[in-house]
Design brief:
Number of helices: 12
Order of helices and strands: HHHHHEEHEHEEHEEEHEHHH
Helix content: 40-55%
Radius of gyration: 42 Å
Distance between the termini: 82 Å
CATH topology of the largest domain: BirA Bifunctional Protein, domain 2
CATH class of the largest domain: Alpha Beta
Bound molecules: 3,4-dihydroxyphenylalanine
Shape: rod-shaped
Largest sheet: 7 strands, mixed
Number of strands: 9
Structural class: alpha+beta
CATH architecture of the largest domain: 2-Layer Sandwich
């Protein structure tokens, strides 16, 4: 019996060396160690042995079982390792990864965010209005006479039904005053404006404006000046010089254009216009009051200031962008510089 067990073990270890895949290995396990396997069959026969032979045979039986089990485990581990390295074939884990390019906000968005953030800190809430507007909201309510040049088909995009693409974001002033339940009112409205302009290095026919409006009792020109000076110093730097130059807008009286002094190393200092502003004209409050049918905006009781600026121009100054068209071309070589 001892020799028989020895022979089974030897045969098993010789056979396993030739096994090449997992299914065959499983079959081998069943053949030798399974319920009807050869080693199991041998162990059942141990019962018939004389008592004194049993310990020795038992020991040999255990040895053989252990040796075959160890060989099966080893072979199984070899197969698993081979499968792993096959899956990883062609993958060099020591190579650096492929970096994903990190995106960045468009320079126009970054400029707008900066302006909006500063104004929100000063208590202005965001407001918006439609881009397709009525003549009332774009011109009449803003005290713009019928023969004003901006009301010409050559300047403004009109639809056949008399509506138009808003030529400025000042429309939002009217919309908000028409619908607000109460004052004080302190809003900013960023958005697109449209004009029939030839596109060139400084003009687009669709551009971005940001409109501001503050209405309350006793709002003064000093409030306007302080707020906008703060805003432009915040955007362009603490030492930026800001100048208010008398101008005319139909919807404000008095009106101003705001210039900042541009100081570029190696170039002569230059005042450049960046915004329009003024005290809301009483005629605008009257127009709004007529629509509302109440006296919340009674020009004898309230005053206000308004301002408007072109965001592309501000972005161009902020970043030194020489051509406004770069802002709409979406050339990645340009946009990447603002990351
Ligand atoms: N709407 C003017 C424009 O598009 C800008 C402007 C000037 C807005 C004065 C205002 C303002 O609110 O008070 O040129």
């Amino acid at each position: 019996m001892l020799e028989e067990l020895e022979a089974i073990q030897t045969e098993a270890l010789a056979e396993i060396a030739h096994i090449a895949d997992s299914p065959s290995l499983e079959q081998f396990r069943v053949d030798f160690l399974g319920k009807k396997g050869r080693l199991t069959a041998a162990s059942t026969r141990m019962r018939d042995l004389p008592k004194e032979e049993k310990p020795l045979v038992g020991k040999k039986l255990n040895e053989a079982r252990q040796a075959i089990t160890a060989a099966i485990d080893q072979k199984g581990a070899d197969f698993a390792a081979a499968a792993d390295s096959e899956a990883a074939a062609g993958v060099d884990v020591t190579l650096p990864g492929v970096p994903l390019p990190a995106g960045n906000a468009h320079p126009l968005t970054q400029s707008l965010d900066r302006i909006v953030q500063a104004l929100r800190h000063m208590g202005f809430a965001l407001a918006s209005g439609p881009e397709i507007e009525t003549e009332w909201h774009c011109f009449d309510a803003l005290n713009t006479p019928k023969d004003h040049p901006a009301r010409n088909e050559k300047d403004t995009y009109f639809f056949e039904d008399g509506t138009l693409l808003r030529a400025h974001t000042s429309t939002v002033q009217i919309r908000v005053m028409e619908s607000t339940p109460s004052i004080p009112l302190r809003i900013i409205a960023p958005g697109s404006a449209f004009r029939r302009d030839e596109i060139d290095a400084t003009h687009l026919n669709q551009f971005t404006q940001i409109e501001g409006l503050y209405v309350d009792r006793r709002v003064t020109l000093a409030d306007l000046k302080g707020t906008l000076e703060f805003l432009f110093r915040h955007i362009f730097g603490e030492n930026t010089q800001v100048r208010f130059r008398p101008h005319f807008f139909p919807f404000t009286e008095p009106s101003f254009e705001i210039d900042i002094k541009l100081q570029i190393a190696g170039k002569e200092d230059k005042w450049i216009e960046i915004a329009g502003c003024g005290m809301v004209d009483p005629a605008v409050f009257e127009a709004v009051s007529r629509t509302r049918g109440d006296d919340l905006f009674d020009p004898d009781k309230v005053t206000g200031y308004a301002f408007g600026m072109g965001v592309e121009r501000l972005a161009m100054i902020m970043w030194g962008i020489p051509d406004i068209r770069l802002l709409i071309e979406n050339d990645a070589r340009f946009l990447r510089q603002f990351g």
